[in-house]
Amino acid sequence: MSEPTTWEPKILAFLCNWCSYAGADLAGTSRIQYPPNVRVIRVPCSGRVNPIYIVEALRQGADGVLVSGCHPGDCHYLTGNYYARRRFALLQRYLEYLGIEKGRVQFSWVSASEGARFAEVVTKVTDDVRALGPSRRLNIKAARPAVLEPKP
Amino acid sequence: MKNALPQDVRDAIAGWLQTGEIEVFIGYEAGPVPLRATPAFIRKPEDVGRLIWDATCENNLAAFLPKYRGKKVGIMVKGCDARAIVGLMQEAQWSRENLRIVGVACPGVVDPRKVAGALGVSVDEIEDARLDGDGVAVDGRVLALADVLHDTCTHCEGHVPAMYDVLFGTYDGEDSEPDYSHVRAMEALDTDGRWERFTAEVSRCTLCYACRNACPLCYCSQCFVDHTMPRWVNQTVEPSDVQFFHIMRTFHLAGRCVGCGACTRACPQGVNLRLLLDKLRLDVAELFGYEAGVDPEAKPPLATYREDDPNDFVM
Predict the structure, then answer these.
(1) Which of A55, A61, A82, B80 is most exposed, with minimal Cβ within 10 Å?
(2) Is position A144 within any domain?
């Protein structure tokens, strides 16, 4: 199935309430332009983001996933993003190992005062994902052969 | 019985049962399937004679421990099984004082798939096979045991359990360095090749969850695959369900998998789960300098952090 030429990447962003979500808010109130491809889910903390949400997002048709939290040391809950960082370091390597294209799943630290930086992050993720094209791996909504071939 | 436990070990187990130090002893007994011993749950001292030990004792019996939480239990462990118990102790699933451990120096266990492969048949077609000294007698031939050991055993990092109350058996060889060549080979492929390799490997999976059930560290009382709200995984032929299950189950074992290989041995479809889990073990070692199943006092790597953890992957 050929992609319609109007394809725009769909990017799911998990933003922590205290820093990155406020940073996105600041970008908005400051009238900073950034690509409209991002759909935001506000979470209490980047440490609240279960890796299963990230992989499930790819399954449900997201072309890219961004998780963004407070800078290390600035977590509202003191250490949540440190735990998250370990998990995401492993997850990113693991998904790449399994053949999910590098750039589909990205992580960033954006503080509440970094509205311009939030716009930069979203622009970069959108550009990266646009270059990769529509996500087909894991995606239950991607076209695939209707009949499964029997496996030996 | 050639494979009966030594008398002093049997006496020790019977003694524990007699005095009430343990309620049940989990070991192995002869089973109906060729080249596979069956787990045995011994509650009476007079039944201790049923217990066996040989190269067909492939289950990781630590997988049964979470079902006996709070009770006093005896258990027979190989080197790898003992590492899994260390994992359970770290995660406060088990305390050492409720456990009596019979350790056995394990030269490795038989992989019936390799036996079947040597004969050119499928594993279900092996009807009559038995251990015969240092070999496996099957179909009028004797295969050398060393040639049909499971892959986890040929590169075993610890043949002799590090933790036990009673130890028997001897292992003369040396422990190996962990072998990650299968992981390195997959890493060397390009992105499309890796996806191809991963999806081909798990495509045989029928979502029977034997890997989860055999894993001593998959003890969640409700596994994410059994959730109905939300329903993460459907048992369908949709490839994405299978891929998702394996990604998430193995990722739950990141920093916890001790590499015992029980999942891979349990898989009726021959899915090589070591290809996934060993990557995580390797990365946990590289990123956090941690090895699972070694130190009962250590914090699991994803339950702790360092301020100077790798940060270069973050924008």
Answers:
(1) A61
(2) no
Contacts A89 to B, Cβ<8 Å: 287, 309-310, 313
Helix, coil or strand: residue A127: helix
Which range of residues forms the domain containing residue A113?
11-132
Does the reported pTM lie above 0.90? Answer: yes
What CATH number is given to the structural domain containing A86? 3.40.50
Q: Do A90 and B244 touch (CB under 8 A)?
A: no
Interface pTM (ipTM) of the complex?
A: 0.92
**Does the beta-carbon distance from A59 to B244 stay under 8 Å?**
yes
Inter-residue contact B37 to B57 (CB < 8 Å): yes
Token pair of B87 as six digits: 């994992």
Amino acid at A6: T
Degrees, nearest 5: CA angle B122-B124-B130:
100
What domain count does chain A have? 1
